[in-house]
Amino acid sequence: RSSPDVFESRMEKRSEVKKQPVGHSKQGEFIRCMEEKARPIFFAEGLGSKTTKGGFTKHKTLDSILNVEMVKEKSAEEITQIWNQYFSAKDTVYAVIPADKFDVIWKRAQNCPSFLYALPRKEGYEFFVGQWSGTELHFTSLINVQTQGETAPSQLVLYHYPDLQKEKGIVLMTAEMDSKFLVVRDAQCLASQVQLFYATERPGTYGLVETFNHRSSEFKYMSVIAELEQSGLGRELRPGQASDKS
């Protein structure tokens, strides 16, 4: 009675609350927001998001993904858990590579920057060329290379980050792919083959990479398929067959 204007204002707000969908709560939104802010911000989502024409991130540094300063206080095991937990909810490929294994891969990549990979399909295989550019490994289908040459667009990029290699003994890896041509299963298969051919202790397996780069006339693409089948990757990752590998 003493303040009709205040009464009317309260009634209007009450009416607005009634119109809100069931389960909607501004207080709940506020609490969720505060919970998000209270969590450690390990990942810098949205930073470094300048993309190239093909949709891949340009100059994708580890700082653009991860709060490096914050994780420096963490152990290698803790960083591995943070990295895996974060990317497990995303539709992409990721890994934490031991420093000594990456040393082998990196040294060989300098000597042999490209290789031919075989991607299992329902019938047969589709071939992809992988080309190292710094610590990025770009993949495109062989048909793209044959028709477009050096201008062939990347369909998958593996980003390797050795920023924590010396201090923590690990190298972080994640990827971006063109979902019009590849699914995560395809990207995982190609990433697994990098380990197979570049990190192997078998001279004959890495010998295929050397032959492809330095004696291309002697290279036989069927040898890649044979190695893939022998390793089990070809059978495990063929569409329509189950695989228990992550």
TrEMBL record:
Subcellular location: Mitochondrion
Membrane-spanning residues: none
Major subcellular site: mitochondrion
Region (Disordered): 1-23
Keyword entries, A-Z: Mitochondrion, Transit peptide
Example GO biological process: mitochondrial proton-transporting ATP synthase complex assembly
Biased composition (Basic and acidic residues): 7-19
Keyword RNA-binding: no
Family: Belongs to the ATP11 family.
Protein name (Swiss-Prot/TrEMBL): ATPF1 factor
